[in-house]
Amino acid sequence: MIRCVVLVAAAVLVGFVPNAAASSEKHILVGVGSADGTPEVAQVNFMGYAVLAQVGEGLHQRLRARAFVVEEPSSKIFAFVSVDFGMGAHTVTTRALELLNTDAKTKGVFDYTNLCISGTHTHSSPAGFLGKVLFQITSLGFQRTSYEAYAQAVYKAVAEAYATRSAATISSNRGLVEDANINRSPTAYLLNPAAERAKYPNNTDKEMVLLKFQDATTGAGIGMLNWYSVHGTSLNNTNKLVSGDNKGYASYLFEQAVNPAGTVTGEGKFVAAFAATNLGDVSPNINGTFCMDTGLPCDNLHSTCNGRNEMCTGRGPGKDMFDSARIIGTRQYKRAMELYTQAATVVDGTVDTRHTFVDFSKFSFPLPMNSREGGTNGNVTTCPGAMGYAFAAGTTDGPGMFNFVQATNTTNPFWNAVSDLLSKPTKEQIACQHPKPILLNIGEVTKPYDWAESVVPLQLFRIGDFFIIAVPSEFTTMAGRRMRERVADAVIKAGLSKKPTVVLAGLSNMYGDYTATFEEYQEQRYEGASTIFGPHELEAFIFNAVRLVNDMASGKNPSDTLPAPGFDIKKMIDLLPKWDYDTVGIGKHYGDVTVQPQGTVKRGQIVEATFRSANPRNNIRTGGTFLTIEKFDASSGKWNVVANDGDFDTKFQWKLESKILHNSFATIQWEVPLGAALGEYRIQHFNTHKELLGGKLVDFTGTTNSFRVV
Ligand code: ZN
After folding, report:
1. What's the gap in Å between 575 CA and the centre of ligand 1?
2. Domain ranges for the chain
């Protein structure tokens, strides 16, 4: 009691208002962790747009895994990890669990039931880490380096969060983020019932839901986690620099603001995650769609320019795509900071988890009474995965260039190798997927290995009145709303909470494409065409989510489940050519500066230098950097690092000069921040070359002349 009084007094002094949880003996434990997961940044295809030509040429911002471990002592524990990758993946979860369970410190703590990995859905992260053929076509197969880098980052972040967990208080807040998203399939949205639409002011969710984590003793903030609906597509399919896009930037800003001044990017203890939710039909390109050739607005109904869909793309709000990522990221960051500062709703009580694997290629279940989908409590089923025609058209965030229907003309060697394996849909499959015209009958092809997922995970986490339902899919706006509402109803009905907050964690643990509502499915825009398990997919997810809620209420544990799907890495095809040597030219040296930075530069301007370099695939420099921006400190005579390649203001661009000689250059740019201190600076480049004979890896460094920020 005395201890509590002292703590309260101390807390009041530092401006921390203690809550009921803070003064009780039993605290929830929370730990946070963050780790670099940047894989090869050159020559590897990016995940999301499925554009063969979008292969890496360098790095804009490092990709991170951000973990939050929550534990009710002597009861349940879970880890929620938001990753700057395209999406969660069963391969990555499986590998991360393998790593966690071979580390003596985390052995036996985490399994499929209580580890959630949710992708922010940046479209500027390397591809090839998903285990299914469809997602390996443009990446020329399975990319082990990406898969391993992602899994290692999750493992390190979770291990750090687990090791640092301590008594914490959790509070929540929610509020609107205006002007940061737009619906990219508004005509499909309009097919949802008028009465249902009337319940919501917008055709996208504008609300951000946020959790704030504080040390229970000192009140110091340790982490922030929020969910807001927007695609990671501010950077379009012409971008070739690895980046966290708008959510990566928002995390970077938040962590910079809260960690002590001068903290090198990536080394701060405070972790801020901007996680994905029901972003399926939600774009950050809020100015609308324009033709890339003419600059005129696209045809509204079909999203085309002169009848061609390739030229129509979303735009805005910035002067270029990096500016757009900056603006959309800043809007999320600013609102999150307000919500974080004012968060006052205590989140405390029982911590619990439930999980299930369900076969969605043939899941039969009763529709609820009065269901919009036909509803007289008759049984319906989901179908083996299939993509409709609109899938190949892509979206206005990235028009499709898959050329599926012209497989015989393609120059993609991976596609050539597998194109004749596609199956014709059966009559039953056509009827099951109706009205989807089936372009790719992926769910029924298993050669050379599976083309699509069929057994999918669903996960439910609870902290008191706060519930997280994690889905392996991109839910559209209305699909997410229905899921949240029905889970909340079930929670209330089961007596778990009178006033629950339910958030949907999208793109979690596996990638099962999109989930549109039954009504949206009828229009077969991109999201409907990519709802691979058929028209009743959403209801099937809801049915199983309600089952998990009821299990949680009744104490049934574990929930009924199929075994975890297997993943045989030995089967995976990889056709991406290996990199076997670099050269630099006679009399030249790696790290030589071929273009020096300009002598003086103003704040807000870009300073640039070019070095003789080598392929960055030689060494991905996990937790390190390809560059530093350094400021001279006259009093100590030392150069201090002010920015690295994890910063949003720096860009590392790699250019291969000759495909035969393998000589290459690195150009490093720094957009001098408006708040940069005046003075003398230099740029350093760090890389590794591979010797022509023997393939030995040798590190090198290049250093520019100094320049002045004036
Ligand atoms: Zn998407």
Report:
1. 25
2. 2-358+454-554, 593-709
